[in-house]
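Checklist before submission:
- one chain only
- standard amino acids only
- sequence pasted in full

Submission:
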Amino acid sequence: MKALNSNIDTQSNSFTDNAQQMKSLVEQLNGYLQISREQGSEKQVERARKRNKLLARERIELVLDKDSPFLELLPLIGLENKEGFGAGGTNVSGIGLVAGKMCMINSNVGSRKGGAIDFATSEKGIRIAEITLQNKLPTINLVESAGVNLPDQDRVFNNAGASFREISRRSKAGLPTLSVVFGNATAGGAYVPGMSDFSIFQKQAAKVFLAGPPLVKMATNEVASAEELGGAEMHSRVSGVSDYLAEDERDGIRIVREIMEVINTSQPHLIPDSPIQPPKYSQEEILGIVPANPKTPFDVRELIARITDGSEFSEFKPEYGATLVTGWAKIHGYPVGIVANNGVIFSESANKGAQFIQLSNKNNIPLLFIHNTTGFMVGKNYEEGGIIKNGAKLIHAVSGSEVPHLSLMVGSSYGAGNYGMSGRSFEPRFLFTYPNAKVSVMGAEQLAGVMEIVKKQSAKSMGKTIDDKKLNAEKQAMIADATQKSTSWYSSSEGWDDGVIDPRETRNYLGFSLAIVYNQPIKGANTYGIFRM
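Returned file contents:
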């Protein structure tokens, strides 16, 4: 496979200036990630320490194999929700190796709001369940939660029910859930261990009941202690809700690792040959190459050269449909087809992309979509040239494709261009975003401009005089609002991606994601919807 040659001058002013701007965005990302890693107030953490409790991330570290990577997911969900519990909610979720097997791990942050489930945390749970089922992973729950945050109950209610449904569906599909309960698991939360395939309760710490002592007293006039109602020993010896009685937290984690050694899970479908060739070019250079301002064009091949093995890339139709780059490569030894924007999508680009997606499906190769487009080309000539039907072919191909998709937002991803590149609504297995990326129906200025034209035409049709000063103020307010809602911080806060990443870590994120999707056989589609010719 031919290696790409870079044409970047890393000593140029434009390169160094852009790298500095991107470093500032990465520093902002690191600041937000630091906030998401906070496990409660200083007082709450101190209280947990006095009770000899491990913190959520310490539990994850102990359950993982030594030196296992950990792909944390949705760490910034809820970041901009002022009414919620903060970035990442009250649950740490991600994928790592336990007893040599890929597992989804969820750990309640009991030292943050008692591990109560706010709306962002419930939305995170739904996405985590989707990833778990798609990638056929066993689940390990490290449980310590006060249950639903009652002020959020109206928005959390259905998500909570869906989370129980998904435990059952995974069990039916042979994907076990293992739950270790270190503290409270009350009301609806009691069904997490109750529906798990394996449940481990910590002695003198786990409290699992549908109703605590005060509610039981109110409902039945029965007086019972928390230990009598839902203690670990009662559930292990009397009710049978618990399968294992752990002496302490470390013993509970030991037991879950022991179970993982025994149970059968998917075996890797592909183990790459070694040694793996690194890219010819430094990944540090990505900061100077990918524009901090997505309006600035760049050749996406320069990015590809810094993430693929040996910088090799077998480009498909390089002379045709130039604004879409397609081809095959390997990342950390895993074969992948790449569909990457090099600007607006023309009819030729859409047709090329649709053909390439079909070929990758025929050869059972997963696809990586690299987003940087303002969408499909508009205008009289392009409408006459069939941009709608050709764009529809690309969307049909993406929708009908059955190989795993990964999506990477590195610039703009606007309108139907987002759909044609397997955006969130098209269910890629994993979707990661650069800090500079913009996701929206269209650019903020274009959106506000369209609304300005509509309002002027509406006023004219009704014979009204428009106040230009007021209209301009409304336009500027709309630009500000649309700009804020198109940022990576907003999209990640809303759960539109699985994480905002440092561009220099792209190869590692993609490599581990490919290892996860190759953990099961990959079979492409043979049929598609009707392609309008």
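Reviewer check: The longest helix spans residues 13-36.
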